[in-house]
Specification:
The complex is a heterodimer. Chain A is mostly helical. Chain A has a domain at about 215-405 and about 415-425 and about 435-460. In chain A, about 65% of the residues lie in helices and about 0% in strands. Chain A contains 20 helices and two strands. Chain A has helices at about 1-25, 30-40, 40-50, 60-75, 85, 90-105, 110-115, 125-140, 140-160, 165-190, 190-200, 210-225, 225-235, 245-260, 265-290, 295-300, 305-310, 315-325, 325-345, 350-405, and strands at about 405-410, 455. Chain A has a two-stranded antiparallel ribbon with strand order 1-2. In chain A, helix 12 packs parallel to helix 14 (about 245-260). Chain A is elongated, with a radius of gyration of 29 Å. In chain B, about 30% of the residues lie in helices and about 0% in strands. Chain B has helices at about 1-15, 70-75. Chain B has two helices and no strands. Chain B is an all-alpha fold. Classes of the chains: A mainly alpha, B mainly alpha. At the A-B interface, helix 6, helix 8, helix 10, helix 12 and helix 14 of A face helix 2 of B.
């Protein structure tokens, strides 16, 4: 009887076993990937699938799983793939990476072709719109660019209501980038009023806001409103924006004084640049080039503030700036996800691949931080040349005045309300030696132009 | 008629032959420059004057910002 029952059970279970076997045999990689996904071995699953479909288009089912995996791992995995490898995968992530690469190469036709396949429902859709509009901008199709930038801002705003803070930040950055890019487009076309109006749509709480102050100041400079431009630039002196120091802001400040014919003020800004910024940037260069330690820049990001400040004050500020960038946050998120998988130590996890991925992403962060820091040094070096030219120009103007026996009006007040140009929506408050967070970016100087020339009597 | 033709045949080389011209230049000629007279009126001012030239000023290349294209690309690169 027992024997009969066992035989019966085996007879019933046989088709089920066969079904499982056929499934595994039909697509063993997919089956393994699903299993790894369920066991939270996301990086292992992604690596296996991506390697399998490197040169062939995966079926829809696999594409769907790849999309799910990328949500967990981030897109960094495909950064090292070449175009040929990426082309076949046909998932939104790889299409976006390829579109970006084509944008950098100015192959706009291929940018649009790659972005066509990204559906509206996809999380990457707003970013795809940002790339698409930027391509239109560089292709000089400005009307189309404005339209797509507006669409991008709208789509990003719709997606901002998510719980995860980092994702929320990501969509906020996309939305603001699209608004800022409309302003930049108008700036390029010389429509500075329109540009300013769009810059003002970016909230002061945005992480991009400190950077656009400079761009807004340039717009006011070209409009000839030097007082407002100087007022915007003085915002960088507030304690809240201490870490956002931009050498270009100093050059623009000196240029504004130069245009107002306030030559001593321009010279004092130039001298301060040479006394403060240049030596500090050179000292920073020394600190950075003397480091031979492996992954020095990556490790720098995790050093206690007290230690990094000891090395160089600028270093601390630069670290703060870099750490607020979206790329850094996303890379860090991927690194933490890898670390979690390593510590999880599942029997099916490809530990060798995980450790190499961990090293890889650390190197990517290291490179990104290094590039950001050297960019600052190079910019300071380049701008010191511009400052030198400006200094020569100021000195030449002063010399000409002496030669022509002329002088500028010196008996003037340092500032007055009547010199402040105001729009109906701009309020006016007095400055009482204190910066208030809500008034940052709304300052204006009240300096009178000193360009009126007083001719001196000829000596007999 | 015949006679006319024969006469023409004999006369034509004599009639069309180039006359040899011999040019002969003066062997010596004297010019008295002091004696030469030029007709016209003097237009230059009597006293010395120099017109002041406008001094050429070379403008240095001051920093200008024509676009923020570099920042646009950088923003995309900084996203991921």
């Amino acid at each position: 009887m027992k024997c009969f029952l066992l035989f019966l059970l085996a007879f019933y279970l046989m088709p089920l076993q066969a079904k499982v076997e056929t499934k595994t045999q039909r697509d063993p990689v997919l089956y393994k990937a699903i299993k790894n996904y369920n066991n939270q071995n996301y990086f292992t699953a992604l690596d296996e699938l991506a390697r399998q479909y490197k040169y062939k288009t995966p079926p829809k089912k696999v594409q769907k799983i790849l999309k799910m995996l990328v949500l967990k791992t981030g897109t960094y995995y495909f950064n090292t793939y070449n175009d040929l490898e990426l082309r076949k995968l046909k998932i939104p992530t790889t299409d976006l990476i390829m579109a970006k690469r084509n944008l950098y190469l100015k192959k706009f036709k291929y940018v649009h072709r790659r972005l066509q396949s990204i559906p509206v429902s996809n999380r990457l859709f707003p970013e795809a719109l940002l790339v698409k509009a930027t391509a239109y901008h560089f292709d000089k199709q400005y009307n189309k660019a404005v339209k797509v930038f507006k669409m991008c801002a709208k789509e990003a705003e719709k997606r901002k209501d998510v719980e995860e803070k980092k994702l929320k930040n990501y969509f906020s950055v996309i939305q603001e980038s699209c608004i800022i890019n409309i302003a930049r487009l108008y700036f390029k076309q010389g429509e500075f009023e329109k540009a300013i109006r769009h810059y003002e749509d970016v909230p002061k709480t945005s992480i991009q806001w400190p950077y656009i102050l400079l761009e807004k100041a340039w717009s006011y400079y070209y409009l000839g409103n030097y007082n407002r431009s100087l007022g915007l630039l003085i915002t960088y002196r507030s304690p809240l924006l201490e870490s956002y120091f931009m050498p270009e802001a100093e050059v623009l400040k000196a240029l504004n004084y130069y245009q107002l014919c306030l030559y001593p003020d321009a010279l004092s800004i130039i001298d301060r640049f040479y006394k403060e910024y240049k030596p500090k940037s050179e000292a920073l260069k020394k600190v950075l080039t003397s480091q031979g330690e492996d992954l020095y820049f990556y490790k720098l990001m995790f050093k206690p503030i007290v230690d990094s400040e000891k090395e160089h004050r600028f270093l601390r500020n630069l670290i703060t700036q870099v750490s607020r960038r979206v790329k850094y946050s996303l890379d860090l998120k991927s690194l933490y996800a890898i670390n979690t998988e390593i510590f999880h130590d599942h029997k099916d996890a490809n530990m060798e691949k995980l450790l190499s991925s961990q090293r890889d992403i650390k190197e990517q962060i290291n490179h990104y931080v290094k590039v950001s820091m050297y960019k600052f040094i190079n910019e300071t070096h380049k701008l010191s040349k511009d400052m030198f030219n400006l200094k020569l120009e100021v000195l030449a103007k002063q010399r000409d005045l002496v030669y022509k026996r002329e002088s500028l009006q010196t008996q003037r007040a340092r500032g007055s309300d009547k010199n402040v140009e105001r729009k109906p929506y701009q309020e006016q408050w007095e400055f009482n030696n204190a910066f208030w967070a809500d008034e940052l970016g709304d300052y204006s100087f009240g300096l009178e132009s000193n360009c009126k020339v007083k001719t001196q009597r000829k000596r007999r | 008629m015949k006679l006319l033709l024969i006469t023409l045949l004999f006369i034509s080389p004599v009639a069309f032959a180039k006359k040899k011209v011999i040019y002969k230049y003066k062997e010596y000629e004297k010019f008295d420059l002091g004696d030469l007279e030029i007709k016209g009126s003097i237009v230059a001012p009597g006293d010395l004057s120099v017109k002041e030239r406008r001094r050429k000023t070379f403008e240095r290349n001051l920093l200008q910002r024509k676009s923020f294209d570099r920042e646009m690309i950088q923003d995309i690169k900084f996203l991921r």
